[in-house]
Amino acid sequence: MNSAEHKSVPDIALVLAGVRRAVQKVVDQAKRDDTELIIADKDGKPVRVKARDLN
């Protein structure tokens, strides 16, 4: 296999950092729009929360 065929797998830390940035962007936009988000509680059940109530 030559280097052109090799696909590198991103480090898990980089993937998690990207996910965190994406979630933060969604929360920030919801705060600006003063809307609700539906998130999962510890049991995985959906819960509505006002974005302004999130830290």
As residue ranges, the low-confidence spans are none
Strand order of the largest sheet: 1-2
Count of beta strands: 2
For the record, give the distance between the C-alpha atoms at the N and C termini, rounded to a whole number.
Answer: 48 Å
Q: Could you state the order of secondary-structure elements as H and E? A: HEE
Largest sheet: 2 strands, antiparallel
- Give the strand content: 15-25%
Mean pLDDT, all residues: 89
Tally of helical segments:
1
| SS-based class | alpha+beta
Helix content percent band: 40-55%
Please state the CA-atom Rg, rounded to the nearest Å: 17 Å
Give a quick rundown of the structure.
Helices cover 40% and strands 18% of the residues. It has 55 residues and is of the alpha+beta class.
Molecular structure report:
- This protein has one helix at residues 12-33; strands spanning 36-40, 46-50.
- It contains one helix and two strands; from the N terminus they run αββ.
- Strands 1-2 form a two-stranded antiparallel ribbon.
- β1 (36-40) and β2 form a beta hairpin.
- It is an alpha+beta fold and 55 residues long.
- It is elongated, with a radius of gyration of 17 Å.
- Helix content is 40%, strand content 18%.
